[in-house]
Amino acid sequence: MKRVYVNENWCLACHLCEYYCAFANSGGHDMATALKGVKLHPRISVEEKDLVSFAVSCRHCQEPLCVKSCITGALTKTDGLISIDRDKCVGCQTCVLVCPYGAISPAEDGVMQKCELCTKNGCEPRCVQGCPNAAIVYEER
Amino acid sequence: MSKYVIIGNSAAAIGCVEGIRSVDSTGDITIVSSEEHHVYSRPLISYLLQKKTDLKRMKYRPESFYDENHCDIIYKNTAASIDPEKKSVYLSTGRSLSYEKLLVAVGSSPFIPPMAGLESVPKRFAFSCLDDALALEKALTPTSRVLIIGAGLIGLKCAEGISGMAGSITIVDMSPRVLSSILDEDSSKIVQQHLEEHGLKLILSDSVDSFAGGRAILKSGQSVDFDILVTAVGVRANISLVKDAGGECGRGITIDSSCKTSLPEVYAAGDCTESVDVVTGQTRVMALLPNAYMQGYCAGRSMAGDAEAGFTNAMPMNSIGLFGLHIMTAGSYEGETYDSYDNGFKRLFYKDNRLVGFIIAGDTSKTGIYTSLIRNRVPLDTIDFPLICERPTLMAFSKETRKEFLGCAR
Question: Out of A65, B30, B100, B332, which residue is the most buried by the measure of CB atoms under 10 Å away?
């Protein structure tokens, strides 16, 4: 299946992926009004140190520890995509305790959120579309 | 005759069904459940009382789970005995079931130490299953004075669950520390202070000697008046079903890496078992939901004929939130330590070039990176150790490893 892949050699640490992610999941119509003055809770995050940077989001693992460890059954894997039923999640953070990539985190309300490849936003992953340097791509590998 | 019989209906049982179905889509499965509830998540009972979930949402799997997986379920029955030679299990109602493969996933039971006059306490509850929580909820009034015996995971989650519904909550524990099974002295002090700030009264290094009327007399001589008692001292693995049939047991049912017991065609998974802790190499009971599910899944694959199925990286780990403070722990607390008080509390334990454990309270973001270093026994000289101590980050791994993590299908 197609997933988001990262090539750190091209990452500029511009953080646009975080903005596009937060915007795509905000339900808003334009980025400026959706994000201005709002604390961002993007589902992709850029790690940087010295001159190295790269974006991290859910790897949609074949053997997902988060799904297996979820105490509520809120995290499920269907056709390779790991998604979360935010209505079931109680914010216990067991998924945070087991994700080897640090790719799942709480939203503002304490309920977990994660990259679902923009499947619930009706588009291809926005972070990829917004990356100016193809450091994030969406493809089959 | 059912090809597969599963005794138990919680996380390990569900893992087993999903494990079987990943290999064998048609073999009959029969599940025996002591409770009369569709599969629900046991740890959610405190969240239920807090109204963070409800009976519908706390189901561990969708309503259609048993039908979709072609499972027969027998409610309100327990297994009384197993005859491994006849490959039969006898139920408490007298019914017997024959099997080709059997999973014992019967969990644990609350352990209640002897306390004089306990039987005379009218409003007395355990806190381990849904019916316990519903009964406790019914008994509570806004003026109830609640006494909880046990400041461990169950007792404290219970306290949080009922804190908005009771007049006062007092917790007594014989240990000098709260959460003594997962916290060390320094971290327990931080958690204790946090709990006290949220109105819990904690009486530590003490225990109940006797009950008289609505009063508990403690060993120290002080007394606590109460209306409702919750016993949450601890649990013991339910081993008798396998032990009585001649199966090998320690504190839990002994299983191998494919979750097989010493009895032929009998498997076991979850809180009733003991297994090897990947960190220390020692055999112990690790009663936690993720391990239960993963053991059950492994048992299921193994029962359905997957000779490769194995679950060999069990380790103790906990994620617990109490009154807004998140606490995560994993592994064992030995070797050298790295401490940080920047965003709450963090103590990493490392030994022989490996991270072996941690206690984190407060900022828990990306903690899974630490857990994975422990689980995968990653040599610390292959990563940027000072950086990983400072914060859990993939930046601490080599460029090649990062490419595997982020540039390849995982």
Answer: A65
User: Is the Cβ pair B326, A48 closer than 8 Å?
Assistant: no
Q: How far is CA B263 from CA B15, B169, B268, in A?
A: 21, 46, 10
A53 lies in the same domain as A1: yes
The whole domain housing A26 covers 1-57+119-141
- Residue B361 domain flag: yes
> Has residue B82 been placed in a domain?
yes
Interface contact flag, A102 B394, Cβ < 8 Å: yes
Structure confidence at residue B307 as a pLDDT band (50, 70, 90): very high
Chain B: residue whose CA lies nearest to A101? B369
Whether residues A43 and A73 fall in one domain: no
CATH of the domain at A41: 3.30.70.20
Residue in B364, B402, B408 nearest the CB of A54: B402
Q: Give me the residue from A52, A97, A141 closest to B367, CB to CB.
A: A97
- What is the sign, positive or negative, of the torsion defined by CA atoms of B130, B136, B138, B142? negative
Most distant pair of Cα atoms in chain A: their distance:
41
Q: Range of B20's domain?
A: 2-44+52-108+236-303
Residue B410 is predicted with a pLDDT of: 84
Selecting from B60, B290, B399 the residue whose C-beta is nearest the C-beta of A98 gives B290
Asked if residue B184 is part of any domain, the answer here is yes
For residue B398, what is the domain's CATH number? Answer: 3.30.390.30
Residues in A touching B408 (Cβ below 8 Å): 5, 141
Cα nearest neighbour of B370 on chain A: A100
pLDDT (tens digit, 9 = 90+) per residue, B134-163?
999 999 999 999 999 999 999 999 999 999
- Where in chain A does DSSP place strands (E)? 2-6, 45-49, 52-56, 75-78, 81-84, 105-106, 112-113, 136-140
User: What DSSP state is assigned to residue B163?
Assistant: T
pLDDT band at A54; cut points 50, 70, 90:
very high
* Chain A residues lying within 8 Å of B298, measured CB to CB: none
Express each pLDDT in B41-53 by its tens digit.
999 999 999 999 9
Cβ neighbours of B403 in A, within 8 Å: 8
ipTM of the complex: 0.97
Q: How many independent structural domains does chain A possess? A: 2
Q: Is the pLDDT of residue B10 over 90?
A: yes
Q: Which two tokens stand for residue B294?
A: 């993963």
The dihedral through the CA atoms of B270, B274, B276, B279 has a sign that is positive
Domain count within chain B: 3
What residues of chain B, 291 to 310, have a C-beta less than 8 Å from chain A? 293-294, 297
List B148's β-bridge partners, or say none: B171, B230
Task: Name the pTM for this structure.
Answer: 0.96
Identify all chain B residues contacting A88, using CB atoms and an 8 Å cutoff. 53, 57
Could you tell me how far CA B344 lies from the centroid of its own chain? 25
B142 versus B312: the higher-pLDDT residue is: B142
**pLDDT for B2:** 80
Q: Is residue B315 part of a domain?
A: no
Clarify whether residues A11 and A24 are in a common domain: yes
- Residues B131 and B102 occupy one common structural domain: no
Q: Are residues B137 and B226 in the same domain?
A: yes
